[in-house]
Design a protein that fits this description.
The N terminus is likely disordered. Helices cover about 40% and strands about 20% of the residues. With about 625 residues, the chain is of the alpha+beta class. About 50% of the residues are buried. Helix 7 packs across helix 8 and helix 17 packs across helix 18. The chain has 3 domains: about 220 residues, tricorn interacting facor f3 domain (Immunoglobulin-like, Sandwich), CATH 2.60.40.1730; about 140 residues, Neutral Protease, domain 2 (Orthogonal Bundle); about 140 residues, Serine Threonine Protein Phosphatase 5, Tetratricopeptide repeat (Alpha Horseshoe), CATH 1.25.40.320. Strands 1, 2, 4, 7, 10, 12, 13 and 14 form an 8-stranded mixed sheet that branches. A 5-stranded mixed sheet has the order 16-17-18-20-19. Strands 8-9-15-11 form a 4-stranded antiparallel sheet, with no helix packed on it. Bound molecules: ligand BES and zinc ion (ZN). The site of zinc ion has 4 residues, from helix 5.
């Protein structure tokens, strides 16, 4: 079927680029957006914004190019708290608009009566509480002297600072000019046209950006701060605060190799440069795959490259996610499960089979833990395709990756890799649904092979809860050796007898997470004094240690835990720690509330809002 808007595009004036198609199947309906792209859709966004740190607002204009059905006289955009001054056509004639009722997680529909206009200008500012934006005071940066701003768009936050159709199936090219204080640098997830910025008067600088490819709007990202750049290879490099730059560059110096390995696996890297922006520790994710510029947490800087799998992951999204994009948030496993599989293939190519097996085995542990946590194999939240707010825990990631690995083992790597490579080519710059992926597998890999179809259990994997019985579990010798040490320790061996000087993050996690949850205060004190866990510079080790301590109501860790929760804002760590405290009734709840009262101001708005509901939950 030819999508309707493709047909329209052919009739558009020759000067307009042909916009990316949208999917018009029922499964591609995005319930988290108000847009009605069949009637009118945005094809290009041009931003001209000034960052004002004093008022914590971005202000300026968004100019939108619109492709509309003949006769269509309105367009519906997504808006979450924007302060709109006016909307006009390009001759400055006012266009009437209305903002509808606001809905949680979604914001409000912004309906503009465009008449015959096909380019409109929205003059607006973002609200200081915009959910995508964190405005950091100098104290929360590494340099402690200048403020910092960053955005996090995925999944539905960008509508709090960009008035557009914020749906992953509606791809838009974009460009931007960003004006900032002259002592700061602005970077965005696009070609950076003026690396040094240009003087803009009044002690300001203006930076220009251009993304020629149509991308889903959740991938538009901005950061402003005291930033410096260091190249890592010919097409790779790192942006960070000056105080963090050298350490980050040393940790991530395999990045260029990763790009080469990824391209060798699944086809050319199509985005030009691959740079990494190292953010302050309040960044809510391990990483975010913003095109040309992965945003990353500094918690991966452990000095031993133990956690560069996070970079392999974000890089892999340059194919799975950014090139072929989940059509709706119910299909997010197509982004995260594919990427978790692909990430492991990059790890294998760069660091070898055993390292990749260690990471895959640990991800199997997480999968088992999540299946239990969700309430068992029949829990609906363990389905890959389903709730647009995602599956339980990290099941999108680890169940999704296990699904693809299971196909790989059944059909063989050569055939599977050839298929995946062609899949990315055939669907490049397009949205994809779960149903669309299964149809593609059947048409291009299975070819009616009845035995293969039966063995794979595709529909069971995609639509049913739990784990099908053909799931492949990769085992690691490195982690098996840890299990032996764990058994000896659990049988009473003293903490000082354990040689753990060369352990990677993953070995520590297997050990600490594998310990029986019930430990005596004496044994906990022994571990902390022998291994310095409370003072660990690794956020990963700290996390696993605090989790164990919390389940034992172990008071001596509370000051260190308090410090940890005031300095790190990565959701993967802070959500389970607060949830763990809240689950410990009268012991843990007052601790959680006391820490959160002052730590809240250090978190990204989306993390703070999610914690509000964890902390206020009636016990
Ligand atoms: N795209 C995700 C982050 C995300 C997912 C943001 C869903 C909003 C909604 C990113 O690629 C990611 O998965 N980050 C992980 C790291 C990864 C190595 C598991 C994280 O934050 O821990
Ligand atoms: Zn991801």
């Amino acid at each position: 079927m030819v999508p309707a808007l493709f047909v329209l595009a052919a009739a558009a004036p020759a000067s307009l680029p042909i916009p990316a198609p949208i999917l018009t199947t029922p499964q591609a309906r995005d319930t988290l957006s108000f847009a009605q792209p069949e009637t009118a859709r945005v094809t290009h966004v041009d931003l001209d914004l000034t960052a004002d740190f004093a008022t914590q607002r971005l202000s300026g204009t968004a100019t939108l190019d619109i492709l509309a059905k003949p006769g269509a006289d309105r367009i519906v955009l997504d808006d979450d708290g924007l302060v709109i001054a006016r909307i006009t056509d390009t001759d400055g004639r006012a266009l009437p608009y209305t903002v509808g009722a606001s809905v949680a997680e979604k914001g409000a529909p912004l309906t503009v009566r465009i008449g015959a206009a096909r380019r409109i200008v929205v003059t607006y500012t973002s609200a200081p509480k915009a959910s995508a934006l964190q405005w950091l005071p100098p104290a929360l940066t590494a340099g402690k002297s200048k403020p910092f701003l960053f955005s996090q768009g995925e999944p539905t936050n960008n509508r709090s600072w960009i008035p557009t159709q914020d749906s992953p199936g509606i791809r838009q090219s974009w460009s931007a000019h960003i004006t900032v204080p002259a002592s700061m640098m602005a970077v965005m997830s696009a070609n950076r046209l003026t690396p040094e910025g240009e003087p803009a008067g009044k002690g300001e600088k203006r930076f220009a950006f251009n993304m020629p490819h149509a991308v889903p709007p959740y991938l538009i990202a901005l950061a402003v701060g005291d930033l410096a750049f260091k190249p890592l290879g010919p097409t790779t490099g790192i942006y960070a605060e000056p105080a963090t730059l050298a350490r980050a560059a040393a940790e991530l110096d395999d990045t260029q190799k990763m790009v080469a390995a990824a391209s060798a696996l699944y086809g050319p890297y199509r985005w030009g440069r691959y740079d990494i922006l190292m953010l302050p520790p309040s960044f809510p994710y391990g990483g975010m795959e913003n095109p040309t510029l992965t945003f990353a947490t500094p918690t991966i800087l452990t000095g031993d490259k133990s956690n560069v799998d996070v970079i392999a992951h974000e890089l892999a999204h340059s194919w799975s996610g950014n090139l072929v994009t989940n059509a709706t948030w119910s299909d997010v496993w197509l982004n995260e499960g594919f990427t978790t599989y692909f990430e492991n293939r990059i790890d294998e190519a760069v660091y070898g089979k055993e390292r990749a097996a260690t990471l895959a085995d640990l991800s199997w542990d997480n999968l088992q833990r999540d299946l239990k946590g969700a309430g068992g194999p029949d829990a609906p939240s363990t389905r890959l395709h389903g709730d647009p707010n995602g599956t339980y825990g990290e099941l999108d990631y680890n169940k999704g990756a296990t699904f693809l690995r299971t196909i790989e083992y059944r059909v063989g790597r050569a055939k599977w890799d050839a298929y995946l490579r062609s899949y990315f080519d055939r669907h490049a710059f397009q949205p994809q649904t779960t149903a669309g992926f299964l149809a593609d597998l059947r048409a291009n890999l299975i070819h009616g092979d009845v035995a293969l179809e039966k063995d794979l259990q595709l529909d069971r994997w995609a639509y049913q809860p739990g784990l099908p019985d053909n799931a492949v579990h990769v085992r690691s010798a490195t982690l098996a050796a840890i299990d032996t040490k764990l058994a000896a320790f659990d049988a009473g061996a003293p903490a000082t007898s354990l040689d753990r000087s060369k352990w990677s993050t993953q070995e520590w996690l297997r050990f600490l997470n594998g310990l029986p949850r019930k430990q005596s205060p004496a044994r906990l004190a022994e571990m902390d004094s022998a291994w310095g866990l409370s003072r660990s510079p690794s956020a990963y080790i700290g996390f696993a240690w605090f989790s164990l301590a919390i389940s034992n109501h172990y008071d001596p860790v509370v000051p260190a835990l308090d410090h940890y929760l005031h300095t790190i804002g990565r959701g993967l760590f802070v959500f389970p720690l607060y949830r763990g405290l809240m689950a410990q009734g009268p012991w843990g709840q007052p601790i959680a509330r006391r820490i959160f009262a002052t730590a809240r101001a250090t978190y990204h708005p989306t993390v703070a809002a999610a914690l509000d509901s964890i902390i206020t939950k009636p016990s």
